[in-house]
UniProtKB/TrEMBL annotation:
The lineage of its organism: Bacteria, Bacillati, Bacillota, Clostridia, Lachnospirales. It catalyses: N(2)-acetyl-L-ornithine + L-glutamate = N-acetyl-L-glutamate + L-ornithine; L-glutamate + acetyl-CoA = N-acetyl-L-glutamate + CoA + H(+). GO terms for molecular function: L-glutamate N-acetyltransferase activity; L-glutamate N-acetyltransferase activity, acting on acetyl-L-ornithine as donor. It comes from Fusicatenibacter saccharivorans. Pfam families: ArgJ. One of its GO terms (biological process) is ornithine biosynthetic process. This is Arginine biosynthesis bifunctional protein ArgJ.
Amino acid sequence: MKKIEGGITAAKGFQAAGGAAGIKKQGVKDMALVYSEVPCVAAGTFTTNIVKAAPVKWDQEIVYNHPTAQAIVCNSGIANACTGEEGYGYCRKTAEAASAALSIPEDSVLVASTGVIGKQIPIDKIAAGVEMLKPQLAATREAAATAAQAIMTTDTEPKEVAVQIEIGGKTVTIGSMCKGSGMIHPNMCTMLSFVATDANISKEMLQKALSEVVPDTYNMVSVDGDTSTNDTVLLLANGLAGNPEITEENEDYKIFKEALFEVNKTQAMHIAGDGEGATALFEVTIQGAESKEQAVTLAKSVITSSLTKAAIFGHDANWGRILCAMGYSGAKFDPENVDLYFESAAGKLQIITKGVAVDYSEEEATKILSEPKVTATADIHMGEATATAWGCDLTYDYVKINADYRS
């Protein structure tokens, strides 16, 4: 597997476009279109929030009950959440517009929205946006980058990744774009991820692969503990790589799943590192757990601790907050048998052993915690299981951004 320069158009047969449809301020990119030259099998995972946005309900119907999909229409600025039957009807109208423009079936159009909850989307602008974007569709690197920019809300940068693998003597590519910065606590944020591959794989195995990698990637991210109404991961596969079709859990499936994991892990880290107002990506690894479930619970408890996140922002090795967060997680462990380390590009330092502070240098700890990526590793010495979660520091700017979000 190798990472390559690219995004949503990296795989054969995929085109994209992005532009300003007038949903946001004048001239700001706010709408993206992704299109496959041939029908795709589709897979998806979605928010577990009981309050589900209209596009989530629409996409669940398409992914679960229709054989193929061929296009994705995404707008930013308005989430089309808590909008009732009218909002769901606008999903249908969006699909109708894309169907007419692209000459594809209405039920092969997936839709996604992100932004303010509770407002109806301006469907006339959305429909006009589809018409605007259709002639701009291209398979170029620039087209992918423009589409990635168009789906951003409070993100400070577009998030793209692409990898290549070899399956059955054929080069298979997976490309992705995603957005997410706040309201991030996936349980499949406001998180949207679109993944496109030219792999030849059955719909059943595509869904299986996605469902197997999401728990250890997107579901291990938290910026602020809020699970969005709009969380959506969509995966399209058009088969144009020409590899023998993957229809079972064989070696080809394993290779594909590993590459898909790498793409989604990279994007999960991009989201965490670009958390609203964040200055650092905060990675937490639990080692020596007796079960994966225990490790996951402990890791996620630490990255969602506001006090721990604030300490990371202050470059303060306040390890007591980490041990405290582990203690109220609900997972059982012996606090007097925990070793804790901080690590970054500036070095690695053990902070506690057997639950008690070691004689470490506060100056060295501060230096380690001042890097843009900081890792805390806790070994609880109970078994062989491990889990890693990603979050970010909690800064003044997070409050400012969310206090002013609608205005």
